[in-house]
Amino acid sequence: MYKSFSMELAGRTLTVDVGRVAAQANGAAFMHYGDTVVLSTATASEKPREGIDFFPLSVEYEEKLYAVGKIPGGFIKREGKASENAILTSRVIDRPMRPLFPKDYRNDVTLNNLVMCVDQDCSPELTAMLGSAIATAISDIPFDGPTASTMVGMVDGTLVFNPTSAEKAVSTLQLTVASTRDKVIMIEAGAAEIPEDKMIEAIFEAHKVNQEVIQFIDKIVAECGKEKHEYIHCETPTDLYDDMVSFITPEAMEEAVFTDVKQVREENIRNIKNKLEERYAELHPEWIAFIDEAVYKFQKKTVRKMILKDHKRPDGREMTQIRKLAAEVDLLPRVHGSGMFTRGQTQVMTITTLGALAEIQRLDGIDENETSKRYMHHYNFPSYSVGETKPSRGPGRREIGHGALAERALVPVLPSEEEFPYAIRTVSEIMESNGSTSQGSICASTLSLMAAGVPIKKPVAGISVGLVTGDSDDDYVILTDIQGLEDFFGDMDFKVAGTHDGITAIQMDIKIHGLTREIIEKAIYRTKEARTFILNDIMAPCISEPRKEVGKYAPKIVQIKIDPTKIGDVVGQRGKTINAIIEQTGVKIDITDDGAVSVCGTDTTLINKAVGIIQTIVTDFEEGQIFEGKVISIKEFGAFLEFAPGKEGMVHISKISKERVNKVEDVLSLGDIVKVVCLGKDKMGRISFSIKDVE
Per the database record, which ranges form the S1 motif domain (predicted)? Predict the structure, then answer.
């Protein structure tokens, strides 16, 4: 049965149609927010997938260019692989919802969001987040929701909820908060050095808005919600677990995981699994398939008990202690900039490359306000960084997400195009991984940018804190600088990056049903303490400020301003003039519509030559000006000189020398470079030049 529900959300109408389309999905919500339209569906397989020990959830966010009245480019004329924005949106939909499905649910679930129409003032990403939550809540798929999400901006110091396109353009905050009925379950933020207390205020103001949306969703579920279906529970046999614990013993498991060397811990766990396989091979062969899950459960219980009750971390650190840190620059001699940051067994090297503004990334998507990207941060996570063997198949969703997080953290401190007219690319190569490589890549990228001579406003550092919770909201332990094991078995990965003066990026992932305000506040302030230590004691002694100039092997860029009406003269017919300049000098030239010209190259002499040619082209010949030209044609009455591509003039035979010249060839030859002075216009209105009158 078709039903429609509406509410006012941040000054615009949110409408949810149920039963109007996609009736065969387990749950479907046809979402309208302003003129933005997104179809969100939730579907699940009838049976669990065999042979897996995880919940197989897939989230898709499909951008259709018809939504903004565009036809895809290229020959194929249909949408190709998901854009970076689509991948990041899929991740931000996934993260608050995944913890609310049953932990032992093994049925395949797909949340699909089809963007069908876009109103730039009403975010399709937010609409999809709400749509996925509603579609799942009204479906028969087991789900402990609903969730609600709100975007927050800050304009002139005032918080703005679900900002419009114009508000986003001037906002100093891009925050997304997802909530359950009681707690915050996901935070994603980019910010222009927002102080911690202001960020906390923004998070919980968004949480209030989310409660209004959840009340709205509850009404929809009450009228349209299906009864949740039963499913096959995938649990470790109780007899197996009890026998394993008595055979291995908690003391032995604690000894196995209590080490600061990841490889040693993994070898200890392998030995335990081997012992169990030998034990059950004859007595209980039906248990062998459950050994991995049982050992995982035993490890998790042991690690959490050690941290929560005994206040012992697996590597012996204090709860607030950061692993051993190191910072280096200039590891690679010929790149434009390089830096390496090491934190325990997490090691990241970032390489900076500078280029002309023509090398910025062009974006073709449904966001009409973002068509290019000048700063690009890429993150690579090879299998050798965790001691595994796997062929490289290009970046996955995790790599793209981590790269975007680091990019978001660094954008607020980058110089403007006017201050530093370069396209900038940083690539973080993960050398070794054992916890929070994304934050390590932020630190390494800061080092690399400063080493490359990029005049960033302030250094940025990032750190991650974790969490282990007990049976009540006030029974918890926060861990500074979590390693892989603590992330794996803990409840939270709370990443915060920023400068001394404020936060530039947040990403919070949790595995439980939300966090209290107290935990969030403590986590944010804990990261500030750690960030301050990293900036002051580790990064500053390595390199305290950006180098004054770009390196020897980096391109040099000179900017000049010309009259916009002269742009055609510089470009020439079909690009003939500008291509001639490039051919002569080997530089790259970018010209904007307002007359800003950037000349880029590695040889300063050739750059200056190109600049001189351009200035000659745009300069009108006036009496008394001195020029240098090349003889390109000789006639009986004089010689023609080229001062720049497309810019020519003539010297009469009588103006070549103070001595009498019988033949032009007696004094000048083709290709000669000579200085001339402009004499002004002759009787016929032509510009004339003289060699003999040059002083």
Answer: 624-692
